[in-house]
Amino acid sequence: MMKILSVSRVWGWNRLWILLPFFLLGGCAGPSLDDYKDRSPVLVPDQFFAGNLSARGVVKDWSGAVIRTFDADIKASWTEQGVGTLDEVFRFDDGEVQTRVWTLTPDGESYRATAGDVTEAGTMRWSGNAIHMNYMLEVAYGDGTLEVRMDDWMYLVTPDTLINQTTMSKWGIDVGEIVLVIQKQP
Questions:
Q1: Is 82 helix (H, G, I), strand (E, B) or coil?
Q2: Does a structural domain hold residue 71?
Q3: Does residue 14 belong to any structural domain of this protein?
Q4: pTM over 0.70
Q5: Count of domains in the chain?
Q6: Among 85, 123, 144, 179, which residue has the fewest nearby CB atoms (within 10 Å)?
Q7: CATH number at residue 132
Q8: What is the dihedral of CA 139, 97, 153, 68, to 10 degrees?
Q9: 37: left (phi > 0), else alpha (psi -120 to 50), else beta?
Q10: Domain of 125?
Q11: Is 160 helix (H, G, I), strand (E, B) or coil?
Q12: Average pLDDT of adjacent 10-residue blocks, the chain of 186 residues
């Protein structure tokens, strides 16, 4: 008679199950801004986000399928006190138009980021060629609204081009993603 599982194999699987949570927790650790400190071109928010910018991007659902496309115009300005304003107009492929006006207020080595539909202000930090920002956004859902966590990563790839990747989550579960390219305009 053939043994299907030996004691050593079962013990091996038990060890694996014991170690599995540690592997999963390690998989949850994402990138750190320190990972980008030596990358260039160096991204300085008040230099890149200045004047007129344009953007093109996609919105993906939880499975990674593209469900919408959009383009946007952004007018960025800064006061003498270092407060930034990003006035954004998004035009989606289904005809919807959204506006968002960000206010970036200096807060030590970061900016406090607020907007009308941002229910929990974000903290914008940067290092090397990257920016990271995490905030709560109120979005239309059915006949009401829903708050989703936005985990924003931006990477300057040329002095005039930035790639932005945002993961949207609810109750800790990823529900969508936004990927866009922002370009400075002459």
A1: coil
A2: yes
A3: no
A4: yes
A5: 1
A6: 144
A7: 2.40.128.20
A8: 90
A9: alpha
A10: 36-184
A11: coil
A12: 44 48 53 88 95 98 96 98 97 96 94 94 95 93 91 97 97 95 95
Q: How many CB atoms lie within 10 A of CB 113?
A: 22
Task: Give the integer Cα–Cα distance in Å for 185 and 52.
Answer: 5
Amino acid at 67: I
CA angle 157, 158, 162 (to 5 degrees): 55
Q: What is the pLDDT of residues 77-117, one digit of tens each?
A: 999 999 999 999 999 999 999 999 999 999 988 999 999 99
Amino acid at 23: F
At 129, phi and psi to the nearest 5? Answer: -100, 15
Radius of gyration in angstroms for the set of CA atoms belonging to the chain, rounded to a whole number: 21
8 occurs within a structural domain: no
Q: Name 22's Cβ contacts closer than 8 Å, sequence gap at least 6.
A: none
Does any domain span residue 177?
A: yes
Residue with tokens 């040329």: 158
